[in-house]
Amino acid sequence: MSVNQNQAKGKKIEISFLLCLFLGYFGAHKFYEGKNGLGVLYLCTFGLFGIGWIVNTISILLKIINKDNYANSTALTEKEIPSHKTNNIHNVTLEEHKQQLTKYLDINREEFNKELSEIPKVEFLISNENINRCAASDIPEIYFSNITRATNIDKLFPFVVVDVETTGLEVNTNDIIEVSAIKYDVGFRAVSCFTSLLKPQAPIPPKATAINHITDDMVADCPMFSQIASSFSKYIEGCNVIGHNLNFDLKFLQTYGADFSNSVKYFDTLQLARRTLTKNEDVCNYKLETLCDYYNIYYTAHRSLSDCYATGRLFKEVIYDKISR
CA angle 100-106-108, nearest 5°? Predict the structure, then answer.
C-alpha cells in the first residue's frame, strides 16, 4: 500500500472516530463507512442502546492507536536508529497494542458468554429407539433462500440456528459429538436453546479434539444422537432453519435421523455473506470467525452452542447490511 493510500485510510479512520464519538448514537459513523443498514439500526436504537456506540468507539480508537504506533516506528527507522533499538521500540508498541486488543476482546467475549448463559435450556427426552443411519445419497436436496430488500423480516420468525461438532468431515464414517440449536422469536430475541454432548461409536480422533476440545471422557456418559433425534426434531419443528455452511450440518443431522420439513425456509449465512461482502476487500475469507470479526462479534469458536449464538448474531448483521446496499 502506498504512502498516499495509508494517509487516506488513516484520515478515514480518524473521521469515522470523530463521527462515532460525537454522533455515534445516531449511527453517523456507520453511514460514513457505507454501512447504511447498520446506520439505520443505530439511528432507531440510539446506538444499540449505547452499548454498540461504546464498543465501536473503543474499536476505532484501537485502530488509530495501532496506525500511529506503526507510523512512529516507521519514522524512527527512517532516521537510522540502530537496528537493535528500532526492534525494541517496534516490539514494545506491538506488545502494548496486543495487550489492549486482548483486553478488549476478553470484555466482549465475557459479554457474549453472559448473554449465551442466560438463554433458557430446554429439557429433552432420551429415547432407546433405534434409528438407522440414512444413506447420504437418500437425503433430499435442500435449497437455500436469499434475503433481499423485499424480504419481510418478521416472516423469518420463528427460526432456529443449528450447529454440530463432529469427529471428522465425512458423514459416512464420522459421528456427531455435540449438537445445539437456538430458537429465535420476532426481534431476533433468543428464547430457548437445545444442546447436548453426544457419544460417538468410536473414540474421538486427536485432530477433532484439537479443534473443538471435546474429549472421550466428556462424552462417556452422554447419549448417542439417535437417542435424542426425536426430541431434537420436535424442538426445531415449524421453524425456519439457519446455519453457517448449513449444508454440512444438515447432512450429518439428516443422516443420523433428524427430520427437517420441506415447508420451512433454510438460510445459509455463508451464502448470504458471499452475496453481501467482497472477498479480499471486505473480508479475506468467509469463515464464521472472520465474518464475526468483521461485524464485531467476538466469541469462543468450535463449540456448537457458542457457534449457534454467533451465527444468530451474524444472520442479523448480514441481513441489515445486505438490504442496505
Answer: 105
For the chain, count helices (H), then strands (E).
Answer: 12, 5
* Residue type at position 139: I
pTM of the model: 0.72
For 24, the 3-state DSSP assignment is: helix
Task: Locate CATH 3.30.420.10 in the chain.
Answer: 136-324
Task: Output the nine-digit C-alpha cell for 27.
Answer: 449511527
Measured between alpha carbons, how far is 283 from 280 in angstroms, rounded to an integer? 5
- What stretches in the chain show pLDDT beneath 70? 1-13, 25, 37, 39, 47-48, 52-53, 62-92
Class of domain 136-324: alpha beta
Task: Check if the beta carbon of residue 196 is closer than 8 Å to that of residue 228.
Answer: yes
Residue 166 DSSP one-character state: E
The cell for 198 is 453426544
